[in-house]
Amino acid sequence: MLYANGQYSLEQFIDDTSRVRSVERLFVVFIEAMAHLGFDRVNFSVMRDMDLDASAQGFGLISTYPTVWQDYYAHNGLARIDPVVKWAVGSVRPFRWADIEHEAELTRRQRQFLREAEAGGLYNGIGVPFPGPKTLRGGIALATSVRKARPMENLDVLAAYCHHFYAVYKRLVPPGLRLSPAAASLTRTEQEVLFRLAHGLSNEIIADRLSIKAGSVDFHVQNIFRKFGVNNRTAAAMKGLMGGYIEL
C-alpha cells in the first residue's frame, strides 16, 4: 500500500465533492479518497467550531479505526495523555506522529501510547489540525493498517484534501443554533469535574476528591455533555482539552 498512488487527484476530489448533497455521502467520498492515497484508517473530529451547530461537533464523527482500539482508548480515558491530540492543539500544519517523539518531551506513558497505537493497527500516522483564531477547531488523524508504506513527501497536499473536505462538511451540515461562548461556558465546579473526568476518574472518586455527592457529580457530568453537545466522557474530555477549558 502506498501513500500516494497518483490515481486520484485533488482536482478530481474537488469535482466529486461538488456533487455531494449529504454529509453521509461526503464521508463516503472522503474515506474513499484517503484510501486512494493509502490511508485506510481515518478519524475526523470537530471539538470547538463556533460556526457549527453543536450537533455537528464531536469526537470521531468519522472513525475507521479498529473497534478494539476505539474501545480501549475510551475505556482507559486515553484522551488525557494522547500526545497526538496535545501536539495538534499547538499546530497549524500537518505533522507525522513519529515526529512528535523527536520534537516533544513525552512522558514514558505517552511513548507507550504511541507503541500501543501501532499494536492496535495504526501505522504511519499523520495529523491534520484545523486551527481556529484562539484554539483548535478539530482535525483529522490518518494512518495505515500496514507498517510498510512509502511516505508522502508533501504533507501540504494531503492537508489540502482534508481542509477542502472540512469546508464542504461545514457547507452541508444542517443550519441551527450556533454554539456560542455563553452556551458552552462551564461553571467552576463543572471545570473541576471535567478536569478529573479527563484523567479517567469515576464519579465516585471525583465525588470524594471534591467532597460532594456522587449524584451531584453525575448532574455536573450531564450538564457538561449538554453544553458540549456530546454523549460520552471521552468526547467531553477531548472537547475540554481542545477548547481550552482544561489543561492536563
UniProtKB/TrEMBL annotation:
Q: Which GO terms describe its molecular function?
A: DNA binding
Q: Which domain of life is it from?
A: Bacteria
Concerning SUPFAM superfamilies, the annotation shows: C-terminal effector domain of the bipartite response regulators, Pheromone-binding domain of LuxR-like quorum-sensing transcription factors
The UniProt keyword set, sorted, is: DNA-binding, Transcription, Transcription regulation
Keyword Transcription, does the record have it? yes
Residue ranges annotated for the HTH luxR-type domain, each copy included: 179-244
Tell me which InterPro entries the record gives. Sig_transdc_resp-reg_C-effctor (IPR016032), TF_LuxR_autoind-bd_dom (IPR005143), TF_LuxR_autoind-bd_dom_sf (IPR036693), Tscrpt_reg_LuxR_C (IPR000792), WH-like_DNA-bd_sf (IPR036388)
Q: Which GO terms describe its biological process?
A: regulation of DNA-templated transcription
Cite the PROSITE patterns for this sequence.
Answer: HTH_LUXR_1, HTH_LUXR_2
Which protein are we looking at? Transcriptional regulator, LuxR family
* Species this protein is from: Asticcacaulis excentricus (strain ATCC 15261 / DSM 4724 / KCTC 12464 / NCIMB 9791 / VKM B-1370 / CB 48)
